[in-house]
Amino acid sequence: VSVTIKHFVVNEQETHRADNGLFVWCNEQALREIYCKPFEISVKESDPWGVMSSYSRIGTVWCGGSTALLMNMLRKEWGYDGYVVSDYSMNYLGSGYMDPALAVYSGNDLLLTGLYPVTQASQLNQMKKTYEQDPIGFGKALRYSVKNILMMKMKTNAFTDTLSPSYSAP
What we know:
Elements lengths: L3 E5 L14 E2 L3 H19 L3 E4 L3 E2 L2 E2 L4 H11 L5 E3 L14 H7 L10 H17 L1 H20 L16
Parallel strand pairs: 1-3, 2-4, 3-6
Antiparallel strand pairs: 4-5
């Protein structure tokens, strides 16, 4: 059974949370002892496949674009090896708040978007522009994201013999 935990971290209210993100101010001790502790326990005890980052900001840094949260704490300190997906992205311009390139650099593997072609095109354009400016660094970050997504997919029933009994290897 796959587990996805959300909303990592400081997602403390629903009202106006999508209005350019909530700004949450706390020190590192409060962040670790109050806000992050349930996520740490979940990561270490349930082996989740996915984590959803939140709309919120800690100070001025969007949680879905925070290397300190997603790479340093979640992956390195806690040993998480699944994928990270953003909360629903309403970034119609492709840059600024919920910047897709910042998300990829910070270890956010997927952006949850709707079926709005304008949103998808603007985010794709932003990522192409970032790749043109930094092909090695951004290319490495993209490869890391793709690896995380594919590793999760490899855990699914699609890659086991039990799902398709009629399939036989050549």
